[in-house]
Specification:
Blueprint: H1 6-20, H2 24-37, H3 42-54, H4 57-62
């Protein structure tokens, strides 16, 4: 499997956000957190964020309302 470039990963993340009606700004904030707090590379951070879509974590989070109750 060929290694993806940062631009290809960003495009994949953008497409996942559009497909799931997730704000890209939220994912960018999360990626920034991974980079600044965990000292991950940009590629590691984006790849991990994409994985959150693939494993269903983002969808599960989106089902929880502001009050902590399931929507």
């Amino acid at each position: 499997m060929a290694v993806k470039t940062i631009e290809e990963l960003k495009q994949e993340l953008k497409e996942m956000c559009e497909k799931t009606d997730t704000r890209i700004s939220s994912m960018e904030y999360l990626i920034k957190y991974y980079m600044e707090s965990l000292h991950w590379t940009e590629i590691e951070s984006i790849t991990y964020a994409i994985g959150l879509f693939k494993n269903g974590t983002i969808q599960q989070i989106k089902f929880i309302g502001k009050d902590g109750e399931t929507l």
